[in-house]
TrEMBL record:
This is Aldehyde oxidase 3. The keyword Ribonucleoprotein does not apply. Residues 1-189 form the Aldehyde oxidase/xanthine dehydrogenase second molybdopterin binding domain. It comes from the Eukaryota. Gene3D superfamilies: Aldehyde oxidase/xanthine dehydrogenase, molybdopterin binding domain. GO terms for molecular function: iron ion binding; oxidoreductase activity. InterPro entries: Ald_Oxase/xanthine_DH-like, AldOxase/xan_DH_MoCoBD2, AldOxase/xan_DH_Mopterin-bd_sf. SUPFAM superfamilies: Molybdenum cofactor-binding domain. It holds the Pfam family MoCoBD_2. Keywords: Molybdenum. It comes from Streltzoviella insularis.
């Protein structure tokens, strides 16, 4: 899914064990064969994985401590070799469940600048400045990618994607890219700037981080708001006051803007 979960898990593991990330490998799993499997969603997958990795690392370090105390500043390889020879169980398991839900508030602010052609209904997103409270990011570059992707997902929801059903049969008519339009390369803001709130921290359990992926979907509402302001400004030039309401049910597509 491109969430960067494996990368964050490697980072957490390497940090807790005090080893380089090159020594950590992630092996694939499958939620179909996990008895306690759950969806990857809700913007909490990374933090739940981090909690599980943390518990595994802490337990492994506890088992290794008696061996480490008998050695003088051993390398990781030497420590593991001695533990293996001492018949120490080197496989650990960490379980994360509903009781591990972390509660915190997430804040954000978004400014959007759009350009609208009132004759054709075409619009462009000239610039977006998005500030999100991601806590103390474990992996800022991955989180920036999550914010960008989530915002574009929300942009599609508000400006181009529309489900149309047959009123008589209920059949979904917009079931392919020919008539269900998702954002393309030219729909991305021409100047897209992401900022993270400074000096923010959630709690020690998840290393101060916060959920990242879903808040930008909500903040994408700034784009249709900006389009609406552009329409109001154009109407004002024609003598229609900005206080006079007009309805656009959404999405703010070319067709709906013209209508």
């Amino acid at each position: 899914m491109g969430q960067g979960v494996n990368t964050k898990a490697v980072q957490v593991c390497a940090y807790l064990l005090g080893i380089s990330i090159e020594k950590v490998q992630i092996k694939g799993n499958n939620t179909f064969i996990a008895p306690n499997g759950f969806i990857s969603g809700g913007s909490i997958t990374s933090q739940n994985v981090a909690i599980g990795v943390q518990r595994c690392c802490n337990e492994l370090l506890r088992r290794l401590q008696p061996i480490r105390s008998q050695m003088t500043n051993p390398t990781w390889e030497a420590l593991i070799k001695r533990a293996f020879e001492a018949d120490v169980d080197l496989q650990v398991h960490g379980y994360v469940g509903q009781s591990d839900v972390q509660n915190y508030n997430i804040y954000g602010a978004t400014l959007a600048e759009v350009e609208l052609d009132i004759l054709t209904g075409e619009s462009e997103v000239r610039r977006v400045d998005l500030l999100e409270d991601v806590g103390q990011s474990v992996s800022p570059e991955i989180d920036i990618g999550q914010v960008e992707g989530a915002f574009i997902m929300g942009l599609g929801y508000w400006t181009s994607e529309q489900l149309v059903y047959n009123p008589n049969t209920g059949e979904l008519l917009t079931d392919r890219t020919w008539n269900y339009h998702v954002p393309q390369a030219r729909d991305i803001p021409q100047d897209f700037r992401i900022y993270f709130r400074k000096k923010s921290y959630s709690n020690d359990t998840i290393f101060g981080a916060k959920a990242t992926g879903e808040p930008p979907i909500c903040m994408a509402i700034a784009v249709p708001f900006a389009i609406r302001e552009a329409i109001a400004a154009a109407r004002l030039e024609s003598g229609i006051p900005t206080t006079q309401w007009f309805t656009i049910d959404g999405p703010y597509s070319l067709e709906n803007i013209l209508m």
